[in-house]
């Protein structure tokens, strides 16, 4: 039988076919051993001549020799098929492992690209005691949404200043990326001891 996967990947049905072939060979070996048993229990190594060196007359010599020859040939075939089964299983499992790793990497890449929207600004300072500080905003937070402003409509920092002035005393929804994760912050612009409404 030709080695499966010569030019194409090994499939489960290739392995099943090899296992069927192995079972057939085992059945043939068993039949040959039964034939030897039927010849007065002659096995693979009992002498085929009597004490005087003449061929034994109580058994069918031709049948015994043919059965012994067939058993030897079939055992070699069996060994070869078992090697093919082992190789095919290795290839099959290696491919499954490879596919699983590839699927996981793709899923991870997809999750990363889906879950992290584009940031349009980065927090470079937060004044202690300011509305920004109280809301939990941190230095190095990357802003992806600031009220109605996002990466798609952001032009300059004046956009944020406008939103802040119109939202004095009202909570704003702010979304940032922090440490590779999306974080929502509730920020209420208001007057405080420092400059501006945010700090």
TrEMBL record:
One of its GO terms (biological process) is proteasome regulatory particle assembly. Acts as a chaperone during the assembly of the 26S proteasome, specifically of the base subcomplex of the PA700/19S regulatory complex (RC). During the base subcomplex assembly is part of an intermediate PSMD9:PSMC6:PSMC3 module, also known as modulator trimer complex; PSMD9 is released during the further base assembly process. Interacts with PSMC3. Part of a transient complex (modulator) containing PSMD9, PSMC6 and PSMC3 formed during the assembly of the 26S proteasome. One of its GO terms (cellular component) is nucleus. Residues 107-180 form the PDZ domain. SUPFAM superfamilies: PDZ domain-like (SSF50156). PANTHER family: 26S PROTEASOME NON-ATPASE REGULATORY SUBUNIT 9 (PTHR12651). Belongs to the proteasome subunit p27 family. The keyword NADP does not apply. Keywords: Chaperone. InterPro entries: Nas2_N, PDZ, PDZ_6, PDZ_sf, PSMD9. It comes from Pheucticus melanocephalus. This is 26S proteasome non-ATPase regulatory subunit 9. Gene3D superfamilies: 2.30.42.10, 6.10.140.1710. The gene is Psmd9. Pfam families: Nas2_N, PDZ_6.
């Amino acid at each position: 039988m030709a080695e499966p996967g010569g030019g194409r990947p090994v499939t489960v049905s290739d392995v099943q076919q090899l296992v069927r072939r192995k079972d057939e060979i085992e059945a043939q070996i068993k039949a040959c051993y039964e034939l030897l048993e039927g010849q007065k229990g002659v096995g693979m190594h009992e002498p085929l001549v009597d004490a005087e060196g003449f061929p034994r007359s109580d058994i069918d010599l031709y049948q015994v020799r043919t059965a012994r020859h067939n058993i030897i040939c079939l055992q070699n075939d069996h060994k070869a098929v078992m090697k093919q089964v082992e190789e095919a299983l290795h290839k099959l499992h290696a491919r499954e492992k490879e596919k699983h790793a590839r699927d996981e990497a793709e899923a991870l890449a997809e999750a990363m690209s889906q879950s992290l929207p584009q940031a349009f600004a980065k927090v470079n300072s937060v004044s202690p005691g300011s509305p920004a500080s109280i809301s939990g905003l941190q230095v190095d937070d990357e802003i992806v949404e600031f009220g109605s402003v996002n990466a798609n409509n952001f032009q300059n920092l004046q956009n944020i200043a406008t939103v802040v002035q119109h939202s004095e005393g009202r909570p704003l929804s702010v979304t940032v990326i922090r440490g590779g994760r999306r974080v929502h912050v509730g920020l209420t612009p208001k007057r405080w001891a420092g400059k501006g409404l945010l700090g």
